[in-house]
Design brief:
Elements (H helix, E strand, L loop, with lengths): L4 H12 L40 H14 L4 H13 L5 H12 L12 H7 L5 H5 L7 E2 L13 E2 L8 H4 L1 E2 L5 E5 L10 H6 L8 E5 L2 H4 L1 E2 L16 E2 L9 H4 L9 H7 L5 E2 L13 E2 L6 H5 L3 E4 L2 H14 L9 E4 L4 E5 L11 H12 L4 H5 L9 H6 L9 H5 L6 H16 L21 H14 L16 H12 L15 E3 H4 L23 H7 L2 E4 L1 E2 L5 E2 L1 E3 L4 E4 L1 E4 L2 E3 L27 H16 L17 E2 L4 H7 L12 E2 L5 H5 L6 H13 L7 H4 L4 H14 L20 H11 L3
Antiparallel strand pairs: 1-2, 3-4, 4-5, 6-7, 8-9, 10-12, 11-12, 13-20, 14-19, 15-16, 17-18, 21-22
Helix pairs in contact: 2-3, 3-18, 14-18, 19-20, 19-29, 26-28
Amino acid sequence: MKLTFVLILSLVASTLGFSQAPKSAEGPRQKASASVLGLSSYDYEFGRPLRPDEHNYLWYRTTHAKEAAEMGLDPKAVADGMDTWHWWVGVDNPGFWRDLANLTGGKHNFTNLKLDLLRVILTVPRAERFKALGLINDPDAVAATKPDQFGLMIDRMKDGTLTWDPEVFGYSSGIIGLQIFKNEKYNPKLWSLQKYLDEPKSVEPPYKIGMSCAFCHIGFNPLNPPADPAEPTWENLTSAIGNQYLREGKVFGQHLPQSSIIYHYINTQEPGTSETSRFPTDSINNPTVINSIYRLKDRLTLAKEERITPAQKTMIESMYKNAGVPLNSPIGALGGTDTEPTLKVPHILTDGSDSLGVLVASVRVYVNEGMMYKDWYSAWPVNPFNIKDSFKRGFTPGEFDIIGKERKDPNSPWMQTERRMPNMATFLESYDSFPLAHSASGKKFLTNDKDILTKGKIVFADNCARCHSGKVPENLPKDPEGQKQAWRALVQKDDFLKNNYLSDDQRHSVLEIGTNAQRAEGTNAHGGSTWGQMSSQTYKDLRAVKMDLVDFDAQGKAIPLYNPLTGKHDIKWSGPTGYYRTPTLVSIWATAPFLHNNALGSYKADPSIEARIESYNDAMTKMLWPEKRLGVKSIKVTSEDTSLPDIFPGLHNELKSLDGLKLKLLELPKGTPVNLAMSLNPKYAPELVEAYISGVLNGKPRTEFKNWINRRRDAGIKAMVAKMLELNSCPDFIEDRGHTYGAQLSDDEKKALMEYVKYF
C-alpha cells in the first residue's frame, strides 16, 4: 500500500499541525458503559457455542491437509503452513497499525483517512462488510449482541472454535486476516471508547489489531460460492485465490467527503487490487491485482538463474540455514561462484522485481504488512513519524537493511517469520485449480463441441502458448513452421493442462505487451530503495536501461502517450525499462477483470458462478476485440470539483518566497485525471505552488498577486495542472490499453478461444 503525493502532503501537514480540515460524517459510534471504567479482568469473551451442524477452522485445516497428503505433501507441514498464512502477523505488526491509528485518527488529520483497523472492526457492521468493503467475515465468529467488558461491539469467536495459541496468533476479529491481541499498555482506569474514537492516541485500547496474509488472499471458492457473501461457511472459502472483491482503499477511506481528491484516489482503486507501495511510496499510483497462487510446485520448475551479489549470497546461505532449507532448493537454488553468485528463482511480483526466491519474497510480505515497522519507517521516502528527516533527505528512499541489521538478532520478528516460511510454502503447493467442469452448475457454461474446442486449442497454440504455458515442446524446431506444428501438437495432448502453470513466469518488456506502465515503472526494488536488497542484480541492471514509453495505434504503430489535457497523443516520456511477469491463466474463468490492474472487464460484487462467467466473457471480449474497450474513458478522473489539502500555512513556514502572499485552498476541476495529483514526488510541491502563482500573475510582479488572485484563479489552477503533467512520475493514464495479441483473429477463432480457456 502507498502514500501518494497528496496523501504525503496531508500527513506532513497534519504531523506538523499546519491546519485543520473540516469534520466529515463518521460511522455508527459505540457507547461504553460506565461500568467498564476500572475493570481489572482481561478475559476474552466468546460468543455462542459452535453448533453440531457447523464446521470450524480445525475442520477446514484438517480436511485440506488430508487432501494435500493425497498430492504427496506432508500434512503436518501443510497444516502448520496454513496456520501461518491465516493467523501469523509477523510478531509485531500490531504496533505498526496502532502507530498509524494514532497518526491519522485525530481531529487534526487533513486527509480524513482513518488508517485504523480497530475503527473498521467497530464501525462497519458484520452484515455490511462485504458489500461496503469487500471484506470476508470469519465463519468462526458471530456478530456481538451486546457490548463486551470493554464496551466494544466486536464480533466474538464461537465457543469451541479457538484451536490455536492466542498469545501467538491472537483471536479472530471476525474479519478474515485481522487478528486481535491484548494490548499490554491498556489501563482500565483510563479507558474510554469515546476518547479513543475522538483521538486514538489519547488512550490505549484494550486490543491491538494485526494483519495476516489472509486479509488479501483468502477468497470465495469459485466452485462452491456462499449463498450470502456476508456469512460464508468454511466450505465456501479457499485460501490462495486472492480476494478479488477487496476494496482496499475504501477500508481506510469510508467517510471521505467527495470534494477531496483523496476520496477519488481511494474510490478509483479497482476492487481486488492492492497498493503494496502505498507506504514505501514510489510516487506512482499503481495498485496491482492480488495474485492467485496455483501449482507452485510446477511454477518452481520455471525458475531462471539471476545474478546476485556476494553479500546477497551470504544472506541466502544464512536464511536457508535458519529455515532448514537446502542450498539447492527449488524455491531458490544457489549457484555460480563466491565472487559471481547466482540464484535460480521464480518471479513473484507483477513486475518480476521480487527476484531472490520464495523465502525472501514471502518474508518481505510480512514487512509490507508492518513487521519490524520502526526500522521500516526509516526506509520510506516520507517518514511521517520523522518528517524533518524526510525533508533533509529530499524525500529519497533508504534500503530496508536485512543484510546488515534486521537478521542479526536470531529472535527478531524477521528471523521468527523466516523459520515459518518453508511450511507455508508447502501449504501453498497444495493448491491446483478450480475446473469449471467440476461444478454441476458450472458445466452448462462449457461447450462439448469438439470442433470448437479443437479450433480453440489451435488458436491458443498459435497465439498464446509461448507465454502462457509452463510446458514447452521437446526438441522445438528452429524454423517457424516447425515450431507452429510442435506447439499445436503439444496443446492438443490430453494432458496439456495437467500440471501446467499456464505461464512462462518470465519478465516481458512493457513495450512488448503495451499495457499501462505505471506498475512496471515502480522503483522500490532499485538499488538503494526500500526493497533494494531483495532484488537481484539482474533485475537492477535490466531496469537501469532507459526506454521511451509509448502507446500503439490501431495498426500497431508506436505513438506518444495520450495527453488528457490536450486530447492528443503528444506526451513524450522516458523512464527505466519496465517489465511485467506473465500471469497464470489457471482457472482464469473465475477471476475477471483482467490485466495487472484489473482494468479490463466489468466488475461484479457477486461470487456466484454465473456472475464470474459474465465477467469473464466481458473481459475476454474486450481483450480480443480491443475496439470494445473503454480506452480514454478508462482514465481515472474526478467526478466533481475537488480540493487539495491546505498545505499553505506550513509551506509559508518552509518557503520564504511565499512571504506576503495570501494563498487560497487549491482546487482541481471536475474531470481532472486522478493520477495527475497522485503520481507526483512530494519534493515538487514548491514548483507546483510557483506554477500556480505564475499562472495567476501572467507576467505581472508578485506584489500584485493579491489584486489578481480572485480574477485569475482559474488560470493559476490551469498552470499548476500543466506543471503536474510535466513533473509526473509516470504519465500513462489509459488504464485498459495493451495486450492486443488476439485482435487479428477472426470472430470464430476468438469465440473458440474463449470457449477453450474456460476449461483452464
